[in-house]
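Dataset card, provenance and construction

Sequences and ligand SMILES were collected as paired inputs. For each pair, a complete structure of the chain with the small molecule in place was predicted and serialized as structure tokens. The example below shows a pair involving 2-acetamido-2-deoxy-beta-D-glucopyranose. Curators did not alter the output after generation; any descriptive sentences attached to a record were derived from the structure itself.
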Amino acid sequence: MHFPGLLSLQALWVALSHAMQHYPSVWGHYDVCKSQIYSDEGITWDYMACQPEATDMTKYLKVKLDPPGITCGDPPETYCALENPYMCNNECDANTPELAHPPELMFDFEGRNPTTFWQSSSWKKYPKPLLVNITLSWNKTVELTDDILITFESGRPEQMVLEKSLDYGRSWQPYQFYATDCLDAFTMEPKTVHDLTQHTLLDIICTEEYSRGYVWKYDKTVRFEIKDRFALFAGPRLHNMASLYGQLDTTKNLRDFFTITDLRIKLLRPATGATMVDEDNLSRYFYAISDIKIQGRCKCNLHANTCVFDGGKLSCECEHNTTGPDCGRCKKTYQGRAWSVGSYLPIPKGTANICIPNNPGPVNCECFGHSNRCSYIELLNTVICVSCKHNTRGQHCQLCRLGYYRNTSADLDDENVCIDCKCNPFGSDNVRCNGTGFCECKKGTTGPKCDECLPGHLWHNGCQPRVCDNELLRCQNGGVCHNHQRCQCPVSYTGILCEKQKCENGGCDDSNSGQGALSPSNCPVLLLLLLLLTALLQGISCHPTL
Ligand SMILES: *[C@@H]1O[C@H](CO)[C@@H](O)[C@H](O)[C@H]1NC(C)=O
Ligand SMILES: *[C@@H]1O[C@H](CO)[C@@H](O)[C@H](O)[C@H]1NC(C)=O
Ligand SMILES: *[C@@H]1O[C@H](CO)[C@@H](O)[C@H](O)[C@H]1NC(C)=O
Ligand SMILES: *[C@@H]1O[C@H](CO)[C@@H](O)[C@H](O)[C@H]1NC(C)=O
Ligand SMILES: *[C@@H]1O[C@H](CO)[C@@H](O)[C@H](O)[C@H]1NC(C)=O
Ligand SMILES: *[C@@H]1O[C@H](CO)[C@@H](O)[C@H](O)[C@H]1NC(C)=O
């Protein structure tokens, strides 16, 4: 008995366990760059797209505050937070470790009570705005993998902007605006991340969700929602990461959206807790941040699964014979083809797009992919491609063979760059055609491929001039036009259109000259005579044998 269902299940299990050997950890995580495979040719490597694990990126950043002297405590001052009992009548003194609030405290371990925090000096110069820029730099491209969370101990600012740079701080773009009143602060309609769709995901929004410090006094965090944005492609619980990866693979803008080298938190107006600022007690207004959470991974262009922090600098440990801080180019001797980023597709293993060794030869052997062999011609001191394929020819296989023409909308390295001229062998003079595929036609023939006839011509293994028809070129004297090519004449007529009598009164053709004197009516008599003569001659010659 056969159990096809059972058999295929078994086959599936074999295939699965085979796959598990190659991908030891959960698939779709791209955490393996290569694995050994055992084949008929022995042990070889199988290369895969790979990326480092996501991790806490705050351990690797440099922080810079603007203006530089904005941290409280120099000179010492007392302050009193609006709603926080731990923060009233406290003193900030930069020179006393227990009373100092330096920027590092934004990134230290939280979980103690009271928490440790960075704090700015208070709003003594009101109504001049209290502005602080906090710039976080990695000197490395980083891909964000989770929400950015900023925890304020002083009430969340009434206005702030989160900005990003992708070019090490040379240029900046806003990531998100935050305000108690978006229209008033930034003349933007208030939105939330839930207003975004797959099509508007890259829109920069202003949100009022994270600014109302004293309405929601226990909520101290300002969030930049990465996961909600991922969810637009990967589904609510990010269960379909394959879909997100597929999208990231094909949409550079999307990939870049989540990629940063620097972040900047622009604090524009502290929490006041009221519409009016208490001008007599400005020590109530300041910024204090206890924690910043940033999860991400080194961007290694899917060519590394490890990123090292060495000498204060992050860099990818590049595989696939790539190099550079982001594995962004091929090693010097592995430039046999152009570098390219690894691909998440096909799911789940992706494509490594490894760099391959340089072509051998005194100079680069460039054949647009139509040959992988070159030959050095000493006499000309030059290298030419050998055996160009795909109907190409020339030093770099950059021309089309005779009988083919160049498809100008295809790239030179396209396998189908040369198109067959397809000249009709009967209608054209040769196999050659011009740059738009027009062949060279014989007389009477036309059309791009020389397979049509000019007026007055007929196709018969090429175009032949029309001899007769039933109109102007009518066969004469009862002749019948045969295929427009010839007149079938009655016995006594000849000529292209049967226009000539075979034996006219005035004189006949040379071949009939012997009977010139005879009228056509006499011909049967002559024939009879001839037959008689033949019979007689035959009778004489045959006698002896009788
Ligand atoms: C903060 O950065 C902005 C550029 O985005 C700059 O114009 C501004 O002067 C900076 N503010 C401070 C206080 O340095
Ligand atoms: C950033 O990294 C590069 C090397 O990739 C190094 O030359 C440069 O000095 C670093 N810049 C900073 C500010 O650390
Ligand atoms: C400032 O405000 C705090 C708390 O609201 C209060 O305890 C303090 O007395 C005020 N100081 C002045 C000078 O008004
Ligand atoms: C680089 O290329 C060499 C030669 O093809 C190969 O042996 C080696 O495994 C490659 N390295 C990586 C990391 O792919
Ligand atoms: C020429 O190449 C383009 C691009 O590859 C292709 O779309 C087109 O069909 C080709 N034309 C012909 C006639 O083969
Ligand atoms: C090819 O020949 C045709 C017909 O003579 C002409 O219309 C066309 O412009 C020619 N193309 C080129 C590239 O010379």
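Derived descriptions for this record:
The CA atoms of residues 427 and 462 lie 5 Å apart.
DSSP finds six helices and 38 strands in the chain.
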